[in-house]
Amino acid sequence: MKTMTFVFTFISFIIIHSPLTCADVNLRVDPLQLFYNNMNLDLDLPINDKWTLGPTLDYQNRSEDDWDINEYHIGMRGNYWFNKNIFSQGWYLGPSISYINIEAENDNDGFDSSGKSSGLEITVMSGYQWMWESFNINLGLGPFFHAVKEIEVKNDQGEKHEYGGHSIGLITELTLGWKF
Fold first, then answer.
1. Positions of E strands within the chain
2. Which neighbouring-strand residues pair with 153?
3. FRET partner for 81 with CA separation of 20 to 30 A, picked from 28, 54, 121, 126?
4. 5 phi and psi, to 5 degrees?
5. Which domain holds residue 135?
6. Cβ-Cβ contacts under 8 Å for 15 (sequence gap 6 or more)
7. Number of independent structural domains in the chain
8. Are strands 135-154 and 90-106 parallel, antiparallel or unpaired?
9. What are residue 57's DSSP bridge partners?
10. Nearest to 15 by CA among 48, 56, 44, 40
11. CATH code at 86?
């Protein structure tokens, strides 16, 4: 929870103390992730007429085979608008890079075991943004690559669980945003 407090303080600091505060900023959230006990936030700060850059946060809390997994990604994402200015309706490309932290824990049958790992994720999202006065929706799809040091955790009974490693795949984006 200390990490989440730090992240929200960091994002607030960027908004308040940025020289870009005279310009519009866009805060986006993925509402579908909330149904899965996850959270995704992106803050778009304008760089010029075609680019935004800002912090991104993804927090996941899930269970896999009796294991509780807490995972967060914190990084930076840029967005490039192809035919129009930023914060307008149209096609975009959004490359990002994030630090990943993973904690796995199992207290099955009274035996506690846990492990931690970290790594890096690179994503390139491509999509379309619908924009109204201050409300917007982004729908996108793109490849991701993440490399996380493998966690090998053994409990007192000698059972082991491995999590992490390298992954390549596709990721989707459906965000609701508010420009202010």
1. 26-29, 38-46, 51-64, 67-81, 90-106, 113-131, 135-154, 160-179
2. 161
3. 121
4. -60, -45
5. 2-179
6. 21, 25, 43
7. 1
8. unpaired
9. 41, 74
10. 44
11. 2.40.160.20
Residues 48/20, Cβ–Cβ less than 8 Å: no
The CA distance from 180 to 175, in Å, is 16
CA angle 107, 112, 115 (to 5 degrees): 100
Cα–Cα distance, 67 to 113 (Å, whole number):
9
Helix (H, G, I), strand (E, B) or coil at 13: helix
**Which residue type occupies 85?**
N
* Type of residue numbered 38: N
Q: What is the C-alpha to C-alpha distance for residues 44 and 56, in angstroms, rounded to an integer? A: 9
Secondary structure of residue 50 in the 3-state scheme: coil
For residue 152, the tally of other CB atoms under 10 A from its CB is: 12
To which residue do tokens 């932290």 refer? 101
In the chain the first and final C-alpha atoms are separated, in Å, by: 27
